[in-house]
Amino acid sequence: MNNRALALDALRGYAIITMVLSATIVTHVLPGWMSHAQTPPPDHAFNPMLPGITWVDLVFPFFLFAMGAAFPFSIGKRAEKGDSKLKLVYEAIKRGVQLTFFAIFIQHFYPYVLSSPQDIRSWLLAILCFAILFPMFMRIPLKMPEWAHTCIKLLAYGVAVILMVTTSYADGRTFSLYFSNVIILLLANMAIFGSILYIFSMHNRWIRMGVLLLLMAIILGSTAENSWTQAVFNYTPLPWMYRFDYLKYLFIVIPGSIAGEYLMEWMKNLKDTDHSDSLQYRKLSIVLVPLTIVLIIFNLYGLYTRMLAINLSVTLILLLAGKYLFLRPTDGIALLWKKLFNAGAYLLLLGLCFEPFQEGIKKDPATFSYFFVTSGLAFMALLFLSIVCDYFRCVRSTRFLVMSGQNPMIAYVVGDLFILPLANIVGIAPLLSYFQQNAWLGFLQGVILTGISVLATMFFTKIKWFWRT
């Protein structure tokens, strides 16, 4: 078996690839379920009153879930090697600060931010930003003293700061700490607070659950005027970096950490007596594959079309069918599937029970139903990928997912900061206008641009140029 959980890499890769895809398709010619449910076509104006979710609304929670699932492998293994809690907390804060810098830096150097309309200067600056990110977030593959690596990294940060402060932007904009990529900023907060919570509860999942209940109480209590909960909710010493409201995404990250523990327990307990190759387990895997896919797709359809009663009924039937499959004693990877299925089933049902609350499930403003439903579906997605990647070992067909998931920071920005600027410089970017004529071409544009971004990411992963915080 692998010494790395390929299913987790594949889930992270799926999240980052679909994140890029959702940003590159021509949404104004596509149906509503190809956009966020709260920003429907044709004008895509934000409407917080619209309930429902689409596949686009699963992208970010799946990535958060994968982040939490990585905690046992990153934090847990370092703790086993003897790193103190204080050192682990320091590393978590350091990672969060680095991600915050990343969020601010890339946001200032998107070509459309640098000039309007975009010009050769904006494209060259975007490519320069992309190049500077390499010494900033990867270890230079040359033999040199540790202090030399540190100096190169600090020099890259210094150049980035100078560029941000001295560059002129479109529409009279100036450098601002408050102007950052909100997705990366949320990930930075989760890297800090999610990691710290895991550090002090890695041997007791109930502590994590208890903290989530306290967090829920503060969030719900913050609506009471002049209450201490409202004061805590509104307090922020660094408003450009932290808001208490960001902590609500721990409701996805922490379940992810439990999924990661399930994966690690399976990998640690692999034995020669594992019956995973038996006919019983093979039949189980063949049934679970369509079951998990149907659960995900039908819940997206039912919640988007607001067929709530039918969606709940079908979900219950499918979950009971899945529960029946695990009645026999299991071990090895089948025991992992059972744990993932049970946790996912509970969270999915919990989310559907919360669905009428807060006027229906919504990504923005995020509701408790959204946190629990997406966490439950993430468990099902991880189960599906565990079967495909770690059981059937479909390595070649999932390589693009795994390699993208191993280098997500590059995958996230390579399109905007390198591929599109380069396409504009060589004069082929105007051809993209032909893809805005109908829905098929609008989707094809996203597939092409995303595919190029994936190939570029796979190249950097192949040569082991990883961006790490």
Automatic annotation (TrEMBL):
Record keywords, A-Z: Membrane, Transmembrane, Transmembrane helix
Domain DUF5009: 4-263
Transmembrane spans: 12-33, 53-75, 96-114, 120-138, 150-170, 176-199, 206-224, 246-264, 284-302, 308-327, 339-357, 369-389, 410-433, 439-460
Stretch forming the signal peptide: none
Pfam families (UniProt xref): DUF5009
Ranges in coiled-coil conformation: none
PANTHER family (alphabetical): LD22376P
Protein name per UniProt: DUF5009 domain-containing protein
Source species of the chain: Bacteroides faecis
